[in-house]
Write a structure and sequence with these properties.
- This protein is α/β, with parallel strands linked by helices.
- The protein has eight helices and ten strands.
- It has a single domain, classed as Rossmann fold (3-Layer(aba) Sandwich), CATH 3.40.50.
- It has helices at residues 13-32, 44-56, 70-74, 77-85, 118-135, 162-168, 187-210, 218-222; strands spanning 37-41, 63-66, 90-92, 140-143, 147-149, 153-158, 173-179, 183-184, 237-241, 252-257.
- The chain has a six-stranded parallel beta sheet, with helices on both faces. A four-stranded mixed beta sheet has the order 8-5-6-9, with helices on both faces.
- Strand 5 (147-149) and strand 6 (153-158) form a beta hairpin.
- The structure holds iron/sulfur cluster.
- Iron/sulfur cluster is lined by residues 195, 199, 217-219, 225-228, 230, 233, 235.
- Iron/sulfur cluster binds next to helix 7 and helix 8.
Length: 263
Amino acid sequence: MMNTFKVDETNLIEEFDAQFEHQFGFLKKKFESRRIHCYPANSGEDVQDIINQFIFNREYIKEISFSDSVTLYQLGIFDYIRNKYGESHSINEPLERSDSGHYKVYGVNPKGRMNLPFEEWKKKHELWYDNVRKSLLSDLLIIGANAITLNGEIVSVDGLGNRVSGMIFGPRHVICVVGKNKIVTNLESAVDRVHNIAAPLNYIRHAKKHYTKHEVLPCVKTGKCLKCSNPESACMNTVVVRGQIHHHADRIHLIVVNQNLGF
Ligand code: SF4
């Protein structure tokens, strides 16, 4: 009898899923031994369910804040939280963008540089900055990260510093969402990944979508980090979180998604 069974060598879903399962199990043990809770997710809906349950179990959460994150955009988390909790909670999304790509607080502007009278710009800018500062005292801060290591470290590089400072202290709780592409072996590979992959791509994103001047940066021009100190560089604060003290045992919750997200 002819055997009609044929292995599909191009379908690697099972292999990738098995690798994710193994890596996640390893990460969970590492992170949870240092009081960072770890959850696996397959989709945006899974992430939303985890966040809902998290908020449901903590009635005192009244203010929810965000930092900027391509991962959160891709999973639809900004829209979801706004729609679900907008009436019952205070949502502080200081880095939210208007349709023109400028920060929402400035309104919709012509493409490119804003053309607001200085006094108006200054007022809006102060409001924007105040909102960023307020996010550091929220009940729940939802963020992404640049890398997580198999040694159990969350690694992020930040220019303004709102994301990394909120990760360390301030918000009562932090939910950090990362795709599996952010998993690296150690700190060295994490920093390499940030400077040679994530940072240049993020600068190109800001230049193309938000009219910034990041194209002048050496990593954008050459595709490789040249360890610059350009004033446009956001590579100013590198933070490694490897655990939480016992007092913060319920503070950072890490969701690892079985998808490639952000960069
Ligand atoms: S340090 Fe400078 S060259 Fe390196 S990634 Fe950052 S901005 Fe680019």
